[in-house]
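Hi R.,

Here's the chain you asked about this morning:
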Amino acid sequence: MRAMQERVEAGFARAARRLGMIGRHYRILDPLKPLAALMGSPFLCFDADAGFQMRKPRMWARPMVYVLSDAPSLRIGDILRQGECLYFVTEIEAFRPPLCVACNRRISIFGMRGVTQLHVDQCPASVVLTGKGEGSHSGMPGAMRAGSYMLSLPALPDFCLVPYMQIIDELGMRYTVDSVELSQNGTRAILSLQQV
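And here is the predicted structure, written out as tokens:
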């Protein structure tokens, strides 16, 4: 079984060198410095289709993509960079190309309101609008409901996201964590946009 897996990985590596471009491979060792540990410069090829037919681009607001890579030691939670685009590995299964999340934000995570402790600094993540918010969170009577957002965050060492934590992205948008789903593949959470 292991010999077969090694042959599949060697095939993925050959395809990555033929179809892909050189990128960067990072491992998050410290949530306050997520891109500090460079592991290497592998060839990377991303596609929305696991068959890598390269027929169509990734759909809007659908961050999941597959990757072919010749990196020797990919792990769940690793960050991959190709040009200005960042991705994190969220699933690795035998005989299949790894599944990644395309990142569109860099977020910083603080403690609950009134607590200024910084837990995560400028970490690549996906923040996608999912619908109308459940509450206004603005403190203003009659305020419009803010949108709800789905956060996808890589697995981070020694950190656990919990409801009511505060998130700020690189654009200065502020969010409150409403609910959290934790797994060994990373973290998904529903966020509400803070209006004031």
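One quick note: Residues 2-19 form the longest helix (18 residues).

Cheers,
M.
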